[in-house]
Amino acid sequence: MEKALSKIVEVTSDPYAYVAGLKDRTQKKIIGCFPMYVPEEIVHAAGLIPVVIWRGNESVTWGHAHVPAYDCGITRSFVDDAVRGKLSFMDGMVFHVRQCLQVGEFPLIMERNVKPAYQKILYLPPIYKGDSIKSFLLGDLESFKGSLEDFTGKKISDDNLKESIEIYNENRSLLERVYEIRREKPEILRAREVMQIVWSSMLMPKEDHNELLRELINGMEKKSVEPKKDRIKVIPVGCLCQTLQFDILDIIEDLGMIIPDDDLYVGSRYFANKVKLNGDPIEALADRYLVKTPLCPTKGVWDVDWGVEVIKQMKENDAKGIISIRVKYCPPHTCYYPDFKSKMVEEGVPEVMIEMEHEIISLEGVKTRLQSFVETIGGV
Amino acid sequence: MGVEYKVNRLRATGNIRPLVDKHWGDLRAAKERGEKVAWASGPSFMFPYSMGMKCHFMAGYASYAGGIGAADELLRLAETTGDLPETCSYHRLHMGLVEAIKKGVPIKEQAILPLPDLLIAGRYCTEQSHYSESFYRRMGLRIAPLELPFVFNKEDRPRIREFVYRQIVENVIPNLEDVCEKPFDYDRLSEILSVLKKTATLRNECWKFLATKPATWTLWDYAVSMAPVIYMMGDPAGIPFYEDLLKELQERHEKGIPALAPEGEKYRIYWDGWIPWAFLGKFMRKFTPHGAVCLCGRYPWEMFPHPELIDPEHPLDTVVDWVYGEETGLACHMAPKGSIELIGELIEKYSIDGLVMFSSKSCRMWNQSHLDQIDSLDKKYGIPGVVIEADMIDPEMVQDSQIDTRLQALFETIDGRRRR
Hints:
A: alpha/beta; Rossmann fold; 9 strands; 52% helix; B: alpha/beta; 4-stranded parallel sheet
């Protein structure tokens, strides 16, 4: 278990070095997929390595010659990394431009300044009623597949796709198992380690990650942990598209709270819902995208209530409160948040919102808010 | 002594206020008259109009609320009920309105609207879906959604056009038919387009006087005159308005009266992005003393720039092609790459000296890749540009010193290049 964890920490501590090394080692092309919904399986089936684009840990410098300071952290950080040449190992990039307006910043900036050998725009539609939605989505995925075939000069067969889907589904099952064990023994891993486990899945070839997860799970299953009864269980929610600063997770735990489960993108959202393979693999990928839960405010779903879903998750985990992690300048989360908050108030669920910026201004401020929160729910 | 520039105000544009007041007044009173009401975002309001419904238009209402000085109280009201200040100000404005309606909070009477029987949620900007979803959650409003993607690659346009057309037939029209309990009125849509064609043709004649040197009128004059070619679409009152405006512009031109006294402008400026509706006077005062006039922009050029393509015999195709047509589809100009092509055409047609990219802090719809657009256009046309950061209607996001400094820098750069 320690060996697997140590590899995971190594991968996520310097994703740039890891992915560049991966390219050298495998002699395969790397395709950066901007989070959250690019179907990586299609890239994998093309014989390429899909990597989910991440938010770096450096202050934005040259990036501000291309995007404003009021874009979200990952938008600014990714542009900064790209124009500074830090992502030169990426042979291609894929952007889902209907996820939010900020993703629309990238195509022109990359085309003019980075010039990746391959660049693809996806228009994956919101989940509205009507046959036209699925039909357009299928067209989008077919177009994606076709563009990758043109790029590699090789056809992607249904068998290639099915094989990739199975590998990805296995990864989802293994990550689910990690989360199951954490629910049973929440103290078994630090919250930052759990996030690193999921993040490493976004960076590593899934075959390698599956192997690592099997080793990790084996160790986790054997390891006994003394439960600390005074810990208050909380569920962190949100942080769309990007990793959370690990320091914030540490503060949550250091203040006496514990995280048995989460509703974070670099968390349970990434591996939720397997692809149900029972026919055409492209259609199966489309069907996975069209699943409304876990609810995502970028997908245009209004008949499922995010607050209700999270409260259900909280109760299932016997948790006492919700910590919303809202990325500063994330319009989908920002627009949804007032209604989410209202639902929490209506249902009497303790909730606090932490605003996360790329450049954290004051961890003390975050700590103070969380301190007050834990004192409040400690008395519930 | 420098030249003291002053705006020669137009008489005809003063006639617009009673027209828009009447439009919004009719909408306010519609429920009392037993009429059905819709709200619409994105280019979708013509569908409820075709059914004889009164209809709100998200950006149009925001411009009206900004113009009548009602925006600030609605924005603050939204914030007191939980909306966050960084949220799109059009979104916040409407949340404030809904809160005022729900709780009976007194606001400027002209800004009050009836709640709709149907919300056509055109998702042109992705944030427009957040707004409609909030209405559903807060008020249970009935929604007919319509995904309207920007086109980032021209080869994607045909399949996106087909997708949008299908959604209208599959979702928007059946919802309207259900709410209104009658079949969709294609004939009425044709009539609306016939009126629009006449109005937009006259408007294009007026545009010619923005290209004159010196300019005969300004983008701000056109901005306040846009309602008849957008949300007042189909209202015959728009025709005499533009006839009168055209007559005045022709007279001015014949008499040699420029938009800026005493002898016309020193700088001809392209304006990108939203119009700052609540601050038109403020922005005019920032440009005029420098002898600068704004003459054209992507957003104001969205409103049926090619009336010759309006075909009332094929109403649905006309509406879809307005946004997704092969030659002039707006959705291609919304994406940064496609916009460069359009801005380039405007630079040449209106003899532009400099670019001002208005970057809204709360709405990124027009902001995408602004700095790269400037760089690309500068390389091709030798025209400098600046980004100014503000908002359409939220005064908290408008800081004079930042705007003044950047405009000053732009004018100095133009001067510097002229001296070369």
